[in-house]
# Entry
Amino acid sequence: MSRSILASILLLAACTGPRVASAPPGSYLVVLDKTDATLRMIEPNSGHLRDLVSTGVGPHEAAAAPDGTLVVVCDYGGEAPGHTLTVFDPFARHVIDTIDLAPHTRPHGIAFLDQRSTVLVTSETSQALLEVDLRSGKVKRVIPTEAKLSHMLAVTPDRTRAFTANMSGNSVSAIDLASGKVLEVIETGKQPEAIAVTPDGNEVWVGHNEDDKLVVLDAHTLAKKAEFPCGQMPIRIAFVPNGKLALVSCAKSGEVAVIETATRTERTRILMPLGPSTQMGFAPGDPFNAMPAGLLCEPDGNFAFVACTTANQIAVIDLRTLEVRSVIPTGKQPDGMTWLYKREGYNRLDDRGR
# Structure
């Protein structure tokens, strides 16, 4: 059986099964549609679209506040560079602010530094990491990354260090957030983009689009610990909550690689189903595959969500079986995702006013 036929069978099976299962009440999947410039908020158990709101042009990445009260979107732009952040309130159910970052443009990687008031954002054109105060709508601090095209961002769980993947610099910048200084710019390989810190905060994993490899750095000493091949164009990395597995979106081959973190060995690859907007009959490796990019593991560790940008849908992976369980339709070119869910001590999100 050809792999393109297998992809078609996977899609049909996914569409006839349940969408997702057992996400806790008050949990929502947030997806950005790049071409449509929209944010969609999805109830994952049913696939119900709770909210659909407009963002700035070319939304690429988003971060949810740890207390579940805000979502902040990087408006990357299109032909003209974007220079804003869109702030969405899931309780009010509308955009509450647009923060202008000018003169800094092309915001992309983003992470919260605290519960709800401060985010870190990369600016590709400024070659910098911006610390943005959401309450005042101002850039509080500009930290040069000392490398070209700082794209994706990863932060340690204790929020003491940040790491940027510098695509044109072929490097990773390690930044001490207390001092706002670059500790080291580490050469890692050609066109690094995917970057993630392990849940225990001890390692940084980096994917390289041109080298088709992963590099593992020690998050403390910054030494290179390992290097190994991984699919075609490993563009995003996400760890399951217990840290035992790493999932890697391989955009060019249309697969998600599953890596055992302790041994750095590949357990399997999961072929992403093609959607109705994708040209059928092409094998993985051709430009007409589902092109998985954005990648997210939900906090309970039962499911992973993969944004299939050319298929205009989210593939849902059951992490217990490592199979595609279902698909959720989206707008055009889904990519960045984040997860909203209840935290102890905060009110649960609900569907008031639906």
